[in-house]
Every structure is written in C-alpha cells, then in structure tokens.
C-alpha cells in the first residue's frame, strides 16, 4: 500500500537519481533510506515531534524517524527551510506529503524549495483535497491571501489561518464525502478550544493548521497567478485529479531553468499549465446515492482506470501461480520417474524438458 502511494506521488521521477529531501515525514515517510539517499526536515526535532503527538492515536511515535534538520532554533524562533538545510543542499528531489497546505507563507516556501533544489530539480507534492476532508466547509485559498501572507512575512500560521481552520473544521472523511453524505454543520472544535489556539498564536506559538484549503483546480489556478506575478520559480509538469475514494491529489513541479530568459521560461510554463488545467475535471460536488445518471465523466474514467490496473495485477498473479504449478508438477513427475540403468530414462526426461 505504501509503495503504491509513493508511486502515485513520485510519478515518472526516478528517486535513485540524485539526493532527496523529504519535508515533514512525521511517522509515515514517503521515501525511506532503502528507496533513495534521503534527508528529513520538520518544524522540530524527533524528540519535539514525539512530545507534540503524545497520546495521538493516529501517530505511532516509534515510527517517527530522526530528523536531520528542523526549523525551530534554540531560542524558539523559526528559520526558513532554506536556512535550515543550507549546509546540505542542493537536492535533486524534494518530497512534501500534506505539507504545502500547512506552510504559513506559500510563496516564501516555494522559493525556499527552489533555492535548495538543483537547477533541474523537482518538487513532488501530495495535497489534501478540501472537498474530501475536514476542510469541506472552508472557502478555497485565494491568490490575495497567499500574496498577503508573503508580504506580511508570516513564519507561523496567522490569526486568519488559525481561526478559519479551527472554526470551520468538521469530522468528515473521504469515504463519507464520496458516498454523498452531507458533512456535519457543527464544527469539531469547541469555541473554548478555538479561543485557546488563537491565544497561543497571539503569544507567538506555532499553531499548526491547514492554512490553505486546496483542490486540483484551485491549486493550478494559484500557481498560474503566482507565475504571472513572478512569485514562483516552478513550472508544473503534472497535476492529477483526486482519485475516486481518495482525499488527495498529486503534483510535480520542476524548477525553472534560471539560465534562460525569465519571461520566456514563465510564458512557456503558463502555457503548459493551461493545458494541464484543461485536462482537469470540473469540480462539481461528489455524486450522491441515486444520482447514477449524473456521475461525472472523470469519475467513470477513473474507475475504469482503477479496474484496468486491478486486472493487470490479477493477470500477473495468475501468471506467477500457473508458473509455480508447472514447476511443481514437473518436480513431482521427475521424482516418480526413476531412471533405468541403461540411462534411457534420463534421455527421456531431457527430451520432455526440451519439448515446448
């Protein structure tokens, strides 16, 4: 299961080529040392992560790897990603699963990632789709909010982000969303908790939350706007629709070649992104039970693709099974066919092996 998800995140990128940085692996790294030459970075070190998630049933503390770098300095201030990993950069690949929606300053973060990549490096993203998680009631992120956070120099999630997250979050899973169940209207965080988190933010604490509610179309639109404004140094190579039954989508961003004319590189990147956006499905609400005639074409196509993949895996399993059965039957035949003393039995057996 983990290998299959990693394949969806990585796409066509070969992680064995060059060095890799994974941001925020927590207890479920996408990339392990067996897969690539990888380093890990998070907001705090492993001890801090274990303490922060103590008692959280969703996080296995024993599975949290040692962090090679962390953003929080000894004095409590927070460094940038580029500052934290500067001594070890550059990397060929940066992997970030369910990270970009948390970063306080998306523009600054994308610039940091570009800074620590090789000139042709790739940023590989897995991003939760707000329609299929606790963000379902939240308004999608806007380019104005993204640019404002950058101009404000946010190093921690803003009051706006903390309030939007904790006031609007609801208990709603991808399974419930795809089944067409209405999300609850009651938020999952009591007002006292909301006030407490805001007070922490005002006191200077890093209050982790979803800063940017995204969907494939919203994310593609943001990147196009940021490219037009000259705020990002990436072209978008791939952006997927959210698979039926899942809650996340995937994107591959390739660093713009700084040896080229920036205006030309940006124009080409926007043209390529326009083609990708045109291939993304319309983001109308998920179909509800009984709406079979209204199932969007992309949902049908996705189910057909998953069925094809399942059939291919089944064919491989059957082929391996049949091969094992043939080898077993051959071994049994040889064990019950003793060779005569004149050696004709051996010749006969060799003949059977050579016959198709």
Automatic annotation (TrEMBL):
Residues 311-335 have a biased composition (Basic and acidic residues). InterPro entries: SAM-dependent_MTases_sf. Pfam families: Methyltransf_23. Signal peptide: none annotated. Residues 311-356 are annotated as: Disordered. This is Methyltransferase domain-containing protein. It comes from Nocardioides cavernae.
């Amino acid at each position: 299961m983990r290998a299959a998800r990693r394949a969806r995140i990585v796409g066509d990128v070969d992680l064995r080529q060059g060095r890799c940085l994974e941001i925020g692996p927590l207890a479920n790294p996408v990339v392990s040392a067996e897969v690539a030459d990888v380093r890990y970075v998070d907001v705090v070190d492993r001890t801090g992560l274990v303490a922060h998630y103590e008692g959280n049933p969703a996080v296995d503390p024993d599975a949290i790897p040692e962090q090679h770098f962390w953003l929080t300095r000894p004095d409590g201030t927070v460094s940038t990603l580029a500052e934290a990993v500067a001594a070890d950069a550059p990397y060929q690949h940066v992997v970030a699963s369910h990270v970009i929606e948390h970063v306080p300053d998306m523009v600054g973060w994308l610039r940091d990632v570009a800074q620590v990549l090789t000139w042709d490096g790739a940023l590989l993203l897995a991003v939760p789709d707000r329609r299929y998680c606790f963000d379902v009631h939240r308004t999608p992120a806007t380019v104005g909010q993204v640019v404002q956070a950058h101009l404000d120099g946010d190093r921690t999630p803003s009051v706006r982000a903390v309030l939007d997250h904790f006031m609007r979050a609801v208990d709603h899973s991808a399974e419930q969303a795809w089944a067409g169940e209405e999300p609850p209207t009651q938020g999952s965080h009591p007002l006292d908790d909301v006030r407490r988190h805001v007070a922490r933010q005002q006191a200077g604490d890093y209050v982790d939350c979803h800063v940017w509610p995204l969907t494939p179309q919203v994310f593609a639109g943001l990147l196009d706007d940021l490219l037009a404004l000259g705020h990002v140094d990436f072209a978008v190579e791939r952006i997927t629709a959210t698979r039926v039954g899942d809650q996340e989508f995937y994107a591959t961003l390739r660093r713009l070649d700084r040896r080229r004319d920036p205006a030309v590189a940006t124009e080409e990147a926007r043209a390529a992104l326009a083609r990708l956006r045109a291939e993304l499905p319309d983001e109308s609400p998920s179909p509800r039970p009984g709406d079979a005639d209204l199932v969007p074409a992309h949902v049908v196509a996705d189910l057909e693709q998953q069925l094809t993949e399942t059939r291919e895996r089944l064919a491989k399993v059957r082929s391996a099974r049949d091969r094992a059965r043939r080898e077993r039957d051959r071994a049994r035949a040889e064990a019950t066919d003793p060779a005569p003393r004149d050696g004709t039995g051996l010749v006969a057996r060799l003949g059977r092996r050579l016959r198709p």
